[in-house]
Amino acid sequence: MNKEVLIQVHNRIKPFIHKTPVLASHLLDEISGVNLYFKCENFQKMGAFKMRGATNAILCLSEEERHKGVVTHSSGNFAQALSLAAKQLGVKAFIVMPENAPQVKKDAVKGYQGIIIECESTPIAREEMAEKVRLEKGATFIHPSNDDNVIHGQGTAAMELLEEQPNLDYICSPVGGGGLIAGTALAAKYFSNTCKVIGGEPYNVDDAYRSLKSGKIEFNETTDTIADGLRTFLGDRNFPIIKAHVHEIIRVEEREIIQAMKLIWERMKIVIEPSSAVAFAAVLREKEQFKQKNIGVIISGGNVDVNNLPFNHKEMLMV
Amino acid sequence: MNKEVLIQVHNRIKPFIHKTPVLASHLLDEISGVNLYFKCENFQKMGAFKMRGATNAILCLSEEERHKGVVTHSSGNFAQALSLAAKQLGVKAFIVMPENAPQVKKDAVKGYQGIIIECESTPIAREEMAEKVRLEKGATFIHPSNDDNVIHGQGTAAMELLEEQPNLDYICSPVGGGGLIAGTALAAKYFSNTCKVIGGEPYNVDDAYRSLKSGKIEFNETTDTIADGLRTFLGDRNFPIIKAHVHEIIRVEEREIIQAMKLIWERMKIVIEPSSAVAFAAVLREKEQFKQKNIGVIISGGNVDVNNLPFNHKEMLMV
Description:
homodimer, 319 residues, Rossmann fold, 2 domains, 14 helices, 10 strands, 16% strand, disordered C terminus
């Protein structure tokens, strides 16, 4: 693996994704004492960076494999991303979702012509169902975060960011399943000599933080965080990259996530999802450490249910 | 008045304002059947187009006048705009606000170093108080919308929009006090041969619609609209321009305003205020009439109280 691989990946997916803008905000720079550069993947197709990895994974398949379709298990952004990427490339996408997934998420997948296959709401049930679909349909299984092609696709966001802002001291990304931060770490390694990669993670699901401490993949005992994209755990493809190339993981409280999200909504006037706010919350929490540094922050997505926003839950802000 | 005047105004205010982006959305084009170009003044300094007019009005003052300060009455975006424009230019801004104005609005003005002067909550009380400040301090009164320099400043948004998208068939702007739509009408007249200007206005405060019908300035009997920036009425400086150069005013229901706002938040991932959504709601309401046309929509601002959003008021969407 070298920088040429990422350049190839970027060239491959470019016609199918948006080159998202990098935004700055004097107000947020003032508040934080940091020079912030937000890579706005909330403006990506289907509203999240996952579009990059999903597109690359499908483009890496043979004609025959494409003909048989792809399958994944996800109730989040990857379900939508794989559906839309598949639709754009004329491929069938089978999406295994728990039967109790919110209707709004099922509708989004259907909107992108993903074929929903319901299963019980346990991790084992969804893995078994995905395996069943794989065998029955001959579809290729694509994991939302623990897949080399997915990881490389996600890395193109940081690659574009460094192209536009080569003097970054740090890039901070949220950590969920590990695909985004692993890809980001590879991009920083290949396209900068000095840029360090840090992760933001909710205290309540700090499996990646603990995994880096212990040296092996740790799991969460709860999924109790507003950052619903970050409830998953690392995998054997992305953890070695994270272990080798991620400088630090900073944990944040739920209250800090909501405050960071509110700051970005109010000051930058852009809609971001709670998982995205985790990276900015991490920078804010450690702002003394980052004073006057140039920090890229990956805004991972903007898919929120506007009927159900956290801002008026005053009790959450009072903690 | 000719196009040179607007070019001079633009050159004058340029160092003190943002050149805001023009955004497009395939999804919203598909939904509406129209080619939409959104001029995003929600990304303007202090979050609204009012920054343009306020800055121009202050820059048109003599050194002596600037030394004595400016005064206005407003509890909305113009209060913040005049405060920030004055701060940027080292001028004092006296802002007359009703004593019962929301604390969040008072805080915003104070944040920009505006000097708040409270008065009773009636139109007469605020005019009297502004006049008192004008006499006592020697400050120049600047009306939020019925002032030639303010109107010309607001017109620079449409001027930038037409520079970037010269082939617009229409520009649609919200109509409140009339400053924005009058400036927009002038810009369209001077910088396009074909572009017509239309206005969007809530049914509940349709004074401008009725004024165009009757040929004289009409008033509202209620202020009962979610589009809180549009509760005001026209004035003798802007109404003649509107009468001469505005093609049509389209009225929209409250429900349509909220739906348009929700569409833009969810699909474009940008935060806009209800008054801004009125222009898009007007285009959607008459989409058959605008089929395949190129329409510029002025997103006038993005200052919302995220603790108090309309989306979960289901009853409003059910009307």
